[in-house]
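Q: Hi! New to this. If I give you a protein sequence and the SMILES for zinc ion, can you show me the bound structure?
A: Yes, paste them in.
Q: Okay, here:
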Amino acid sequence: MHGSVMSVSSGGWHRRGIWLATALIGAALLVVGLLVGPFGGVGHAATKPVTVSLTFDDSNADQVPAEQEIHSLGLHGTFYTVSGWVGQPGYLTLANLQQFAADGNEIAGHTIEHPDLPTLDPQEQMREICNDRVNLINWGFQPTDFAYPFADADTNETDAKACGYNSARGLGDVVSPGDCSGCVYAETTPPPDPYYLRAPDEVDSTWTLAQMEQEVTNAQNHSGGWVILTFHHICTPVGTTACPSDLSTTPTIFNAFVTWLAAQASKGVTVKTVQQMIGGTFKPGVYVNPPAPAAAGVNALQNPSLETIDSNTGFPQCWQAGGWGTNTVAWANTTAAHTGTNAENLTVTNYSSGDAKLLNTLDLGACTPTVVPGDTYNLSVWYESTGTTQFALYYRTTNGAWFYWTSSPYFATASTWTQATFTTPPVPAGANGMSFGLALISNGSLTTDDYSLVLPTTAAKASAPAPAGIRVIGAVSPIRIGARFHVHSHARPLIPGAGKVKPHTRFAIPEATPGPNAKSAT
Ligand SMILES: [Zn+2]
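A: Thanks. Here is the predicted structure of the protein with zinc ion bound:
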């Protein structure tokens, strides 16, 4: 299991794990029976060859010394990379990844933003998997293997293959400390399903050194095979935000384990990357565009009047909380709406710096409107406010990263419904999505409703050519050629704090450096 997957009631891994256990327990018993029969006891059976893969998820910065440790021992690992986190504080840098690759490690894929994939609409799932792989390719790597965030695969096995991967790793389907009793002791080679590789639970702070070693010796004492161990943080002290107990082991334990592991070579234990075990060719990247942009004159926003509430988050569907700086924000849905029966209210207290605003969910296109470089858009919202506000704008690049763009002039307080409007600058080159919100930049109360984002004039543009070796699916330009996917009007958003996604994943945009037009601390 992975991270907060325990809260994913509909997660695919658990049901799958039970199914696999049921299917395979018979085979495991059969093997034991054969061993007991001819040799008169399990203890007489010779140990079986075992291959161990050391896999590292989520691109955490504390994996750097771990990589240096295994490198010093002549071992290589597989680093499942969340490309949208690379280079952010607390995460690996591109230079780290390049060094890892130069040391002989495998750079593999783990989506752009680490969502719980089955909760997303089908196109968004493809963008998370495929475009992450394209990011890695554009960085110079040749990714051939993937790991499901939260080990939650659902129907994504076909997606992982369609994106060009040769394998995809799950978690929690191999006997683990205190878990998965009756499961297999190792993945078999070849695996029965390369798009759901069976692995023990992720290593966490409850694992002792002896238990790590037992994952290997258990496999040796049974059928042998492939033991895929998964690490997230290697850090101390465990139990802090940067070193969470459910995702961490200490450098002391990790170093002791890999030192022991390297010494097992004489006992039939080898260490290989997932790529070395799976093989297969490197396939070209597949880039999945966001939905086609709305036609000129049409409001491009989903749920613009905030009428549909997401039951998981409490926020309007396809909207999320945004904000930065030092202040306290309280959110509320209110029936005192401009139109319809719902508007969103936010109240800021203890204001020292920054802002608070409702934003179009910062995703890869399921919720945020698709925009075209060079176009300008008319933004508007109806509001009542006791404090000064301004629009804050963000854009998404084709690699899925969000950046602060610009801010509008200030809007005065308003005790009755008032419309704020702003025309954007031309969308920057390389952007294909945008998000905006009306930011409250003081103590006070702000209620908003009836947002719109409209392209006022039509200007047909040609799509930018795709980089060599990248196949592009879907069309972002107004010339709707080759659109292979339909736009889903019922896209499900990802919102921070939903319990299924790391809370910071949608707040990772650099709002803390808002640029010259935004109001600074007062
Ligand atoms: Zn992960």
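A: Helices lie at 12-39, 63-72, 94-102, 122-138, 157-162, 209-221, 251-262, 274-278. Let me know if you'd like me to explain how to read the tokens.
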